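Trying the structure run again after the queue cleared.
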Amino acid sequence: MKKAFLLLAVVLIATLTVLTIKFLTFRSKQIKAEQADAVELDKVATTERFAELIKLRTISYEDRSKIDPEEFLRLHEVLEKNYPLVHKHLRREKVAHYSLLYTWQGTDPKLAAALLMGHFDVVPAEDGWKHDPFSAEVKEGYIWGRGTLDDKVNVAAILEAVEKLLSEGFQPRRTILLAFGHDEEIGGSGAQAVAKLLQERGQKIEYVLDEGSIITEGVLDGITRPVALIGIAEKGFLSIRLHVETSAGHSSIPQKHTAIGLLARALAKLEEHQMPARIDGATAQMLEFIGPEMNLKNKMTLANLWLFSPLVKKQFLAKPLTAATLRTTTAITTINGGIKENVLPKKATATVNFRILPGDSIETVLEHVQRTIADPQIKLEVIEGAHEPPMISDITSPAFAALQRSIMQVFSDTIVAPSLVLAATDARHFGSLSKNVYRFCPLRLNSELISSIHGTNERISIDNYLDCIRFYRQLIINTAQ
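Done. Tokens:
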């Protein structure tokens, strides 16, 4: 008995020792950054230029026949009118008819270029808006409209920043490339064409920055300060169509399971048996950055994931947003079957969408689906458009450090951390051109504003928009020299 107590005491002391050492060595990864010089911007003129873009109905519909190409061409004309210095000093190329590639030639050809990205197509707007989604009304300190957050804001802010630097006589040593896609919301063929063009030219890219994660306000538990999340990875994409076919007949003489019943059973299995959750990759690195900035309890927990990872995992899985950072998600999105209430359905189909966590693959997801359903009557079809998760980008690179510094210079008292982007971006097409592919929008958003992206009442505060311009200006200064 004494030996057992002695052993227990030794284990307890050893555990407490490790917990304490891990806690004391769990140091901040935030860097020192001097405040950026104040940059005066004409609020009225800048807002008016942005509003012109929001008013253009550059809508990407799934039904391509509904897309109005004239709106995209008008956007090209508006950009040329509103940013004369950009169009005087930078070379502009149209790619895939409607996407745009600008080249600001640097003075040192040995330096790899920086690539700043955005897209100017938007999703359709449903009813229920407080202000018309294409009116670009300025009310309550906000600019309202589709694209104010996703993603005309980045296109406009980047061009404003370059126009401002040109007016100041700035000349970059490093070539700056600007790539603006026209169809990101329906696959990104424009961005793919730009990536292919740059690859054919043998263009070296130091880093890529596209839309993605944001500056959260009051979203992450345990942190009162804003947290700027830099996406260093994004999920892959896979949609599977499930088919089942049985005999038709009269509903008064049903089989044991109709086609719909068989399909429903398979779908229920997929929802009940999700893919495994794990804390690794970009999410683990995020916790390493934000953990030291949290309160004592959370800091101790995150410093010792070797012991507390089951607890952290449970907390993450309790909310859909954080749960999605730990696993490949399963979402049943469409279902079809049956023709009449008294006719047994001969066929039934459903679509299941998976957002693939880095470390999983299309192959492992398909294996999971087949193993989970375990029913040879259910046939699987991979729908076109699937892609693997891109590689995780380097957080030790000078480019990441410059991003972190630029954020902290413009958005003071902000914590910066790497993160996983849950949706797909055009950045995934550029992985073969650079190992430093990042996804970050300089947008300060709370939960309500986040929900307006692809929803109703999308808007950005005028002050936040001006800070977006300041951020891109500062980033160019920090990385182009």
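The longest helix spans residues 2-24. Worth checking whether this holds up in the mutant runs.
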